[in-house]
Amino acid sequence: xxxxxxxxxxQATMREIFEVMGEHxxxxxxxxxxxxxxxxxxxxxxxxxxxxxxxxxMHWGFLTPQxxxxxxxxxxxxxxNNARDDKLRSSGLWKDSFLNRRxxxxxxxxxxxxxxxxxxxxxxAITGRDARPPFAFAGLWRAGQPGIDGDAGDWxxxxxxxxxxxxxxxxxHPTRMPVILDEQDYDTWLTGSAEDAARLLRPFPCDRxxxxxxxxxxxxxxxxxxxx
Length: 228
Fold this sequence. Notes:
Belongs to the SOS response-associated peptidase family. This protein is mainly β. The chain is built from four helices and 15 strands.
């Protein structure tokens, strides 16, 4: 389960690798983020109304209402920031978005924690010529949050699809890891059929990934941008 990731990729690089025209970049002045937590805003690549790719900001996590078990009154909504690959076509929370609103989530690293009191944080990235090559997680998005009042009810939100952990991630998180897409599969994930998209839901090869940082209590805010 991924609850923290980083995207330090420059805006210009995102436009280039995700093939987004300048007029379809709606990020404003994006400076990169070393810590993206659930409910934070972050860049997402989706298909616009004209069928072209666009860069927009969305909050991380589909929101659902919650009530206090003690009082029965509404409390802060839950943010569902991970969607299991084996639930995408059966869960009412994910099904419509999987069929109609898939997206790319730009990233440069993600964190998993192992142990407790204190936990050890492990940051994972892909290999390449750059220190932290940019990549994309498989994502889903939706507009509006049913049952949520106030400004949050109008949020654009995204969620990250997870799959079985590969051999690099498994010692830290034994069961799950985010789906990282190969660049040649971006278009299939965005525009392909449900069957074609489902075939992309697999662990990223562990020989193309590495641990870039580990330590007790390390978050992306504690590490220089150049290290993530």
